[in-house]
Structures are given as C-alpha cells and as structure tokens.
Design brief:
The protein is an all-alpha fold. It has one domain (3-298). Helix content is 82%, strand content 0%. The protein is built from 13 helices and no strands. The radius of gyration is 19 Å and the shape is globular.
Amino acid sequence: MSSQVNDPALAQRTSMGYVYMALSATGVIFLPTTAKFALQGGSDVLSVAFARGIVATLILLLVTLMLGLNLRLPRRQLLPSIVVGIAAALFVYGIYRAILTINISLALLILFLYPLVIATWEHVSGAARIRSAQWIWGFSALAGLVMILGVRFDQISFVGVTMAGLAMFASVVITLVNVRIVNTTGSLIANLYMSLWTLLLFGAAILVFGQFSPPQTTLGWSGMLGNGVAYCVSWVAFFAGASILGATRASMITLFEPVLAALVAWLIFGETFSPLQWAGFALVLASLFMFEKLALAES
C-alpha cells in the first residue's frame, strides 16, 4: 500500500504539487496566444522575448520584496543559474526557428520528448526509480500526443528538426538544473535570476542584431505584457511543483498541457476534433493517471 495513504502530510504536499502543475499549465496555454497578439501588433520575436524578461523580472522582484525574501543567490548556484538562463534563451530561439521551417506539430512532438529524456537521465543516474510499467505508460502518453497533434512529415528540414531538438535539450537542462537551485532558494528566487539572465541575453542580442520593435496596437501591447505574466506564472508554478513531485513526474505531467490547450479551444472557440484526436486525449489522460498512480505507490 502506498505511504501516501498513511501519511496525510505527504498526501497534502503531493496535492499541492498537482495544484502548482495545473497553474503552470494554465500559464503555458496563454503563452502562444499572447505572443501572437504582440507579433500581429507589429513586434518581433526578439522584442517579445526581451519584454517578457522585463515583465517577469519586475513581477518576481516585486513579489520577492513584498514577501521579505532574501534576494541573494548562493555563490555555488551562480554558474548553474547562468546556465539555466542561457538554456532558456536557446529554448526560445530553437522553438521559434523550428516552427518557421517544419510543421508545428512535428516541432511540438520533438519538444515534448523532453519528459522521457529527463526520466531516462534520472533513472540512469539513480535520482529516480522508473518502473517498467511507468515506461510503458510514458510512451503511451507520447503516442496519444501524436494522435492529438496529427503529426505530419511532409515538411522535413534538417535545420528545423535540429532547432526543435535544441529547444528540447534546453528544456531538459532548464528542468534538471533549475530544480536543484529551487531546492536551495525556492522557486521565486531561482526564476527571478533565470528571467534576469535571459533579459540580459536578449537585450544584448537586440543591441547586436537589431532594434527593439514595440507593438503598434493596444492589443499588441496587451499581448506583450500578458506574455510576460504568463511566462512568469508558468515557470514559477512548474518549479514549485517540481520541487515537490520531482523533475521526472513534473515533466511527465506537462504532457497534459497540449490536451488542456485543445480542450480550451474546443470549449471557447468551438474547435472540432476527429475521433482519432479524441482517442488521443483519452490515451494521454489515462496514461498520465497510471504513471502517477505507480509513482505514488513507490512514494
């Protein structure tokens, strides 16, 4: 019998982890929409990424000061934090370059390989024990995602696949490294510095390669600001959840994000889905449920 049943405190902590992951997924849903508003308003990718860093850094700094938290980053965490910031910048560059050259469905599929890569790393390194049945359910969830996305291979580009792979690898680095920083500093401080480093990197890129291009419409400005808020919420909540559930479980739960985004589109925008896609939704949800059930049995 799982220790969750016999330990109310552990059960409550795990439930809080799920709440954080749900909040993170909510933030992720609004990231592409708000970015689209900003881009359609006359901005560009580099400017949106730079503004997002400003908004996220200011929000996290304000919240940190209001809570009276120590802003100091331990010296031993400085280099890992900078690595996370560089990886976050490479993630943005990689995924946007990918979707310009290959189908977005294929780019997303490559990106969402990262939970299984993290699971493999943690299993091999001994950081987490992944049972055989969990591997089956993990790959089943990925198969369900393929059904939902309707992945096509009619637009294959070596550059696009490489860039999507870069974004996936960056996601692995961000998750594995930043979760360790979070365990020392807390999610707010760790993500404050991640946002600061990416802000500086994109600011330098604007100085070298171009100029800041602000939106020319009110909706565009709303999208740019909203993108910063969504970015802030998604990362802070994700790492708060990962500090409770662990990197592998938290990453695996992110496979629910495309399902949630599709369901929101169905409910709000009346988007229709094929029977195969509905079967994909069911497969992802069932697979994640079983993966977590087995993980809880081990806790």
